[in-house]
Amino acid sequence: MMSSCYYILVLCLRVLVVGGPTHDIVVVDRERTVRYGGPGIYVSAAASVLELDLEVYVLGVVGWRTLGSLRVIGELGGLWIGTYFPWVEGLVFEHVYRGVNRVSSMIGTATALPSSTIFNAIEKIRPDIVVLSPVYGEVTIGTPSLLYHNYNECIFFDIQGLQRRGLARGLPPIVASFIHASDKEAEDIYNIVKSHILETSGYGPIRLVHENSVEVIGHAVGELNDPTGAGDVFTFLFAYRFCRDYSVVESVEWASIITYNILPTINDLVKNLSSDSHSLGDG
Cβ atoms within 10 A of the Cβ of 50, count? Predict the structure, then answer.
């Protein structure tokens, strides 16, 4: 679906998602499926399903095994502005879910995304919202803070990609509008984050952490059979709502409810589009 921004004169938002597409082998209750994924696909899918008046730009690196993801992004209305390196495999993961817990293994190739590339994209697109969601530490440690101090956009940072690579300990201070982390990830970054942390815990409470204060501001709505992409969708929906002048609590509540309601539809959509791609193997 192409954004209605192209057809009617409305003040639509521009969203830049920084994070490479992935080739995901997902195991839930011993059932194995293969699909494309990553923050750009899930943000594009959420915007498409909800028919939001915005443009989604996706910046990252694809390899030969993740190249088919670009077709999925396009089918979902997203605009790819990244780079293709045919000599690398790309971001390939195996995700094994055991209840609410997920064990992820990187079995592909991560390629660095220079800060200058991100800055150039921002200068060209002029986004209202930037969602930094490196899947496996593709961005440099200082990128969130540089963006936050140099631009007026809402900068939202998901720490998961640094955590996967074991980079979340001993980092310099990180500054952004908000940082999203799971409860386990948040434990490693309390002392280095100088921003508000949205801490989620599967199907439990959502906490707002800032300096020495911790406040429960919401709860996950319910249990999902396949929670793949939940963090990407929640982070984007929170950012979208918050940047439209809703409060933190209102934004969290809305993002939680909508994520729970639309994620099954999104995952079905992504599975179907992935199966149609010519370059998607079974891992």
Answer: 15
The residue ranges of every structural domain in the chain are 4-275
Q: Specify the CATH superfamily of domain 4-275.
A: Ribokinase (3.40.1190.20)
Q: What is the pLDDT of residues 12-35, one digit of tens each?
A: 789 999 998 999 888 877 788 888
Sequence letter at residue 27: V
d(CA 44, CA 25) in angstroms, rounded, equals 20
Summarised one tens digit per residue, pLDDT across range 107-152 is 888 888 888 899 999 999 999 999 998 888 788 777 888 888 887 6
Q: Mean of the pLDDT values across residues 68-84? A: 95
Instruction: Please tell me the distance from the alpha carbon of residue 43 to that of residue 56, in angstroms, as a whole number.
Output: 8
Report how far residue 206's alpha carbon sits from residue 257's, in angstroms, rounded to the nearest whole number: 13
Question: Which pair of tokens denotes residue 236?
Answer: 């984007």
Residue 41 has which token pair? 């696909």
Query: Is residue 263 within a helix (H) or strand (E), and if so which, with residue range?
Result: helix 248-275
Q: Are strands 22-28 and 61-62 parallel, antiparallel or unpaired?
A: unpaired
Cβ contact 167:189 at 8 Å: no
Cα separation of 151 and 47, whole Å? Answer: 24
List, in sequence order, the alpha helices (H) in 87-182.
115-125, 143-150, 160-164
Mean pLDDT of 183-210: 72
- Give the global pTM: 0.87
123 phi and psi angles, rounded to 5 deg? -60, -35
